[in-house]
Amino acid sequence: MSEPYLSDYEYHLRQLRAHLAGDTDQPLPSSFIPPAGYWTSREKDLFFHALVVHSRFRPDLIAASVKSKTIIDVCAYIDALDQAAVAAPPFQMPSLRSSLNGAMEVSESWVQHEEEQASILIEMEPEWEREGEEHRRSKLLESRSDNEPTYSIWKEEQQGLWDKQDSLAKLSIHHLQALDKLNRNADTRCHEIEPPSADIPTPAFDDSLIDPALLALSSSPARLPANALASAEQDRPLTPEFSPNPFSPPLPSSPNPNPHVFDLDPGQLSPASRRRLAKRLHMRKQRAEAAGKEADMASVKLLPGRKKTTEDSRLHKSRPKKYKPRKAGKWIQEADLQGKATKHKPSKLKPVKWIHFDLQDEANGSHVAAGPSVTNAEDEDDTNGLSVPDPDVNNAPTVRHGKRGLTSAHKILSLFEERGINANTLIECGLDIFNLSALGKLMGLIHSAYADSDEKIDSSISIETVKLLRNILLDFVSTLIHRAISIREQEVLLKRKIKVWRLDKEDEVAPANVADALQMQALSTHSLLSEVTEDGEGDVPHDATPGVPQVEGEDRQSDDIVEQSLVVEDDSSFHARLPPHREIAPLFVTMPRRVDDEQLMSTTTDEEELLAELDDEWELDKLDRRLEARYETTLWQAMNGGKP
Fold first, then answer.
1. Which residues, other chains included, contact 517 with Cβ-Cβ below 8 Å and sequence gap of 6+?
2. CB 257, CB 195: distance < 8 Å
3. Is residue 29 included in any domain, yes or no?
4. Where is the composition biased (Basic and acidic residues) (predicted)?
């Protein structure tokens, strides 16, 4: 590993982390923006970040990002920036060409050198990250004193948290399968129907705290006689025996409900859920009838897989009372030592003996292995029809049933249980929205790509990468929802008073609105993949159809007219086929769908000015090439003192 290259790489990492964290060497100074706004350096950083993310036309979103400023303060700051930009002299405004660094193009030798250094960095970087994490944890432990009474408890909690982080730092395909199993089990428990909620019982008070006369009145529905009231008045104590308890007794705890006791109410389900429930119960009944068992018709979704059988029930099976006789074949052939075959009738066959031979045919050098032999009635010895195996035979076949071990996913699942990783951990990390086993199958494509090579590929993914995918998904879906709702609101405003449109459910977003929102997010670019040929070149025209010859010129223009006339033929898909700009605000002038390349250049272009501009660009390109050569020479001198 080149030391200069390593130092340059570390410097680049420090710069990148400082840029992402917003730590600059020259922060913006604090200032007062009239009428009543004092902006600190931190608030200015948040303001300019929100200005890039949103727009100057959304001061409400910028104020929400800064959190310490109002919309009026944000508008005042934007106006101050506009006034300063207008008042600045022209010579003080730096040009974009001179302020930005140009992109440098290097030679193939430098690219090869960086590839070699990058392969070494890939191997060393995980070790650096592990050492850095251990150093950070040791610093955290040293920051707490050992004499603190809660130090041992805090250290144990931190160690458990670090064990969870280490377990999720590198996820293989089996890890993803185990996490997906945790997700499915949690979903099954959540979907189990809860028992009907009973009324909260009122706390029971002691009868000694109630007046005996009132207790006698409340215990009997009928009217008590006068003598009973008199006796109750006489038995009433002068002072209470017990003082009232100001604390209410705890509520009685009920055992965990059995999920199979409470079934789903079909009346509270949607039609699709009722169909799924009916299909589930029907298939469960069919499987039970095929297996000869009683079907469990509870509406709760059962766990997948077979029921687990214990080891005792597998080993200690009940002895059958009747045995089914085995029928022998018509003829059984026995190969003797000379290679001849003799036939025996089933009536003269006796049980099988194991005979061991240790003979060698000198002619062909073949060995005769041990095997079963069938004896006749004439050759039967005095064993009373029983064949005793030879104790000297060591290679007699024996059937051994080994204990079935756990799969890799189950081993990892047990490890997760030991370290306290469960469904709540996945919910805290935000991974409960993913089908992690499908992500593992996608990672398995890497193994299939390198199946023919000798290189061993160990594909894994970090939990931080999965979190990043989740954030990207949430950002995409939230933006899609906002745009779909906005499109629906604009559609309702435009079509509410037009009789030809029937908007029965104005508060619901139609699928066409979602399709328009997807089109606004440029999701339709995935169709460009169909234009790429097998050799990787996109030579297929934009509207090419397989098996149809392409036309050019006037024929193509006539096809455009036909296509435009066929746009609105289907009434059922009329709304979905119109693009959003034509649906909301149609244009007065329809632009041509295709423009010829020859018409891009205006016929009134001054050729002399064009040639002069091209000459300037050529000179500028020569200057860039000289700067690139000088830059590469500087790089080689910084690495090893000269170009090899």
1. 480, 483, 484, 487
2. yes
3. yes
4. 286-296
**Distance between CA atoms of 641 and 633, rounded to whole angstroms?**
9
**Residues 244-257, mean pLDDT to the nearest whole number:** 41
Token pair in block for residue 160? 């458990």
Instruction: List residues bridging with 163 in a β-sheet.
Output: none
Answer with the one of 548, 565, 586 that is the final residue of a domain: 586
Give, to the nearest 10 degrees, the angle between helix 408-418 and helix 173-191.
Answer: 70
Neighbours of 178 (CB within 10 A): 27
Q: How far is CA 615 from CA 37, 603, 610, in A?
A: 52, 21, 9
Identify the pLDDT of residue 249.
40
| 309 located within any domain | no
Residues 6+ apart with CB under 8 A from 223: none
Calpha distance 229→213 (Å, rounded): 7
Three-state secondary structure readout of 46-86:
HHHHHHHHCCCCCHHHHHHHHCCCCHHHHHHHHHHHHHHHH
Domain total for the chain? 2
Q: Is residue 257 part of a domain?
A: no
Q: Is the CB of residue 484 less than 8 Å from the CB of residue 517?
A: yes
Which are the contacts of 151, defined by CB distance < 8 A and separation ≥ 6? 144, 145
- The tokens describing 284, both together, are 């469960």
- Find, among 357, 352, 325, 317, the residue nearest to 338 by Cα: 357
Instruction: Output the pTM of the full model.
Output: 0.49
Residue span of the structural domain in which 493 resides: 473-533+576-586
- Give the pLDDT score at 301: 66
Report yes or no on 40 lying in a domain: yes
C-alpha closest to that of 43 among 77, 15, 11, 20: 77
Between 301-310, 587-596, 631-640, the lowest mean confidence (pLDDT) is in 587-596
Distances (CA, A) of 240 to 179, 212, 228, 231, 235: 62, 11, 21, 18, 12
- Residue 248 in tokens: 């209410």
Nearest 5°: phi and psi at 249? -65, 155
Residue 574: C-alpha distances to residues 310, 349, 491, 571 (Å): 63, 85, 14, 5
- Closest among 172, 137, 70, 160 to 460, alpha carbons compared: 172
**Model confidence at 622: pLDDT above 70:** yes
pLDDT class of 633 with cuts at 50, 70, 90 = confident
Q: Among 86, 106, 128, where does a domain finish?
A: 86
Give the C-alpha separation, 470 to 260, whole Å: 35
66-75, 262-271, 356-365, 604-613, range with the lowest pLDDT: 356-365
Kindly tell me if the per-residue pLDDT of 13 is higher than 60.
yes
